[in-house]
Design brief:
The chain has 8 helices and 18 strands. Helix 1 crosses helix 8, helix 3 crosses helix 8 and helix 6 packs antiparallel against helix 8.
Length: 365
């Protein structure tokens, strides 16, 4: 089923953007693990809509209600089910989309796949609204990883043409990653973040939108996780990250830039760092042959510009089969990248916990 994910930690996402509830069921979590519900709620606030000028005006509290899977605050072995209410939907804004698909949205392909029975309100189950339960599930996994000294964080590498600063791997620490989570607009360079925000404001003033790149970092990931061929760390992470609707590209380490490098530039020399084997550089991004090397895991995700924009757009009226001009109503983000960032962290946490429970690592964690 397309809404299910995971090999050891099984996740199922349910709901629609304008339905009564959205939520998730997580099965396979280690037992006896305390879930900090206050910390979970704080994490959710980083993704929630209606919190600042760069986000959609749709305002959802995104309060998490856990209805099973905990006993006395700890995981008890039963599937953990969490619910999130949809309280601020305006379905009337989407009536015209039954026959007039929005450019760059799934309106057209959803109708093909589900023979016009799909829910067209704000994208139904194709909507970014479904990243809320995905974020909640992954945030729970991140809490378990922190107890195992694995830290995950992310910054905005770019918004449009504006770039953040680049930090060397040896400058990355768990404390630095935690400091990013406390920023409203997480960048290494404060001035770069301010330029990015100006760019978003300019796009919004033009009735337009911008995209960007999120760089994800995981520290403390043990060497030896993953498998070659179809079950590698890159395979599993990419599959999960593409569940976020706006993601259009994933790269690890040097990624696409490696294609312009020579082998002598890209190869990472091995050396002994105390008692640990490490590499002098990290062009491989912490994964070799689908298996973690013990170096920082570096992943970047390209997020497209929000397709719902204020400008008139050319599309097709599928009832008359004639070209028509569409002016999208409703409430939309001029840039979705900063709200996608905590979701990407959460997804990374989900996959890393799933990997830790593979085979021989299960007895250690």
């Amino acid at each position: 089923m397309s809404s299910n994910f995971g090999k050891n930690v099984h996740l199922s996402i349910f709901g629609q953007s304008h339905g009564t509830m959205i939520g998730a069921v997580i099965d396979g979590l280690p037992v006896g693990e305390e879930i900090d519900l206050d910390a979970l709620q704080r994490f959710m606030e980083r993704r929630a809509p209606g919190r600042d000028e760069y986000a959609t005006a749709r305002r959802e509290a995104d309060r998490i209600e856990i209805v099973s899977g905990l006993y006395q605050g700890k995981t008890c072995g039963a599937p953990l089910c969490l619910l999130i209410a949809n309280a601020d939907s305006r379905s009337a804004d989407y009536r015209q989309l039954r026959d007039i698909p929005r450019p760059a949205h799934a309106d057209y392909t959803a109708q093909l796949r589900y023979q016009h029975y799909n829910d067209p309100r704000c994208g139904g189950h194709f909507s970014g609204r479904l990243t809320a339960p995905l974020t909640a599930a992954g945030a729970i996994c991140l809490q378990l990883l922190e107890r195992r000294e694995i830290s995950v964080g992310a910054h905005l590498q770019s918004i449009g043409t504006e770039q953040d600063a680049v930090l060397a791997d040896d400058a990355l620490t768990p404390q630095l990653l935690r400091s990013l989570a406390g920023q409203k607009f997480p960048t290494w360079d404060k001035e770069a973040g301010e330029r990015m925000q100006r760019l978003i404001r300019d796009a919004a003033a033009d009735g337009d939108s911008v995209g960007g790149v999120i760089e994800l970092i995981a520290l403390g990931v043990p060497a030896g996780l993953g498998s070659p061929m179809f079950d590698g760390v890159e395979n599993r992470l990419a599959a999960a990250l593409f569940a976020v609707p706006a993601v259009k590209g994933i790269e690890f380490g040097s990624g696409f830039a490696a294609a312009a490098m020579r082998g002598s530039e890209h190869n990472d020399p091995f050396y002994l760092d105390g008692a640990q084997i490490a590499t002098k550089t990290n062009h491989h991004g912490g994964v070799l042959g689908g298996i973690t090397s013990g170096m920082p895991l570096i992943v970047r995700a390209a997020v497209k510009p929000t397709p719902s924009i204020g400008r008139p757009q050319l599309t097709l009226d599928m009832e008359s089969m004639r070209p028509t001009q569409l002016e999208i109503k409703g409430r939309h983000d001029p840039c979705i990248v900063q709200r996608a960032l905590p979701c990407m962290e959460a997804v990374t946490g989900l996959v890393l916990l799933d990997l830790l429970l593979d085979g021989e690592y299960q007895r250690l964690y």
